Amino acid sequence: MKRFEDKVVLIVGATSGIGAAAAALFAEEGAQVVVTGRREDKGQAVVDELISKGGKADYYKLDCSILEECYKALDYVNDTYGRLDVLYYNSGVATVKSQDEGYFENSSVELWDYIMTVNLKNAYFMSLKAMPALKKTHGNIVITSSGASVDAPVSLSTVIYGISKAAVNHLVRLIALNVAPDGVRVNAIAPGITATSIIFQSSQEVVDQVTASVPMKKMATPEDQAQAVLFLASDVTAGSITGQVLLVDNGQFL
Asked: What tens digit of pLDDT does each residue of 78-136 get?
């Protein structure tokens, strides 16, 4: 039997990169996957591909910077499928306009509020809203943190982002402790350098330099990160793991 047969998985931020890769793997393992994101064209394209390969998936348009929309996504899953087994909160922002605004000296209250809302506040309150459904299924939550949460130098151009992801790590531990008696697990992955479209917006020289700086001399793929998500989300492979942040970084943060 497939690991997620008859289970319902909601992915917040699944229209590209790690989220889309996770959607594909969950679908391969038998889950009903609800793909969310702001870009309807991209989200529907992900769903169409999953269905073409025999998967079960649909798309729900979601701007995760708006908490009420996050709540409505959970209501949609409950109303449509009657259950929730895995909430994968994969959304995160580092800057809005340009990388320059990520430096400490260029910080603004507006940027702080936006990053903290998407990366931390809405992850927290969406987890809270999802908890009654997850308690019924003894389900679990996986959140995407970041290597920037554990190493300050990588956060020099994304100061607020690094702070928000460090807070996410503690969020995971504290929520996990609170809901463990109910049989609900909460974990996170913390990706290192990963070969997503954001990375390849840089020059090839920068990409080569970044890759060379990693002990294993390679970047993780979105599929590498997605495999870690499924590992944590599966009761078969991680049924006794909760409150943990799993670095997937090719040794970058050793």
From this structure: 999 999 999 999 998 987 777 788 888 999 999 999 999 999 999 999 999 999 999 99
Phi, psi of 222, rounded to the nearest 5 degrees: -55, -35
SS3 category, 135: helix
User: Closest Cα partner for 103 from 93, 94, 114?
Assistant: 94
Q: Which two tokens stand for residue 90?
A: 């994969």
> At 150, is the secondary structure helix, strand, or coil?
coil
With H, G, I as helix, E, B as strand and everything else as coil, classify residue 197: coil
For domain 8-248, the CATH architecture is 3-Layer(aba) Sandwich (3.40)
* Active site (annotated) includes residue 59: no
The model's pLDDT over 53-79, given as tens digits with 9 standing for 90+, comes to 999 999 999 999 999 999 999 999 999
**Active-site choice (59, 60, 88, 161):** 161
Q: What whole-number percentage of the chain has pLDDT above 90?
A: 81
- The sheet carrying 140-144 orders its strands as 56-61, 32-37, 8-12, 86-89, 140-144, 185-191, 245-248
Structural domain boundaries of the chain?
8-248
Please tell me what DSSP assigns to residue 83: -
**CA atoms of 89 and 229, how far apart (whole Å):** 10
Least confident residue range of 161-165, 183-187, 207-211, 244-248: 207-211
Task: Compute the distance between CA of residue 189 and CA of residue 89 in angstroms, rounded to an integer.
Answer: 11
Backbone angles phi, psi at 89, to 5 degrees: -95, 100
Residue 241: count of CB within 10 angstroms of its CB: 16
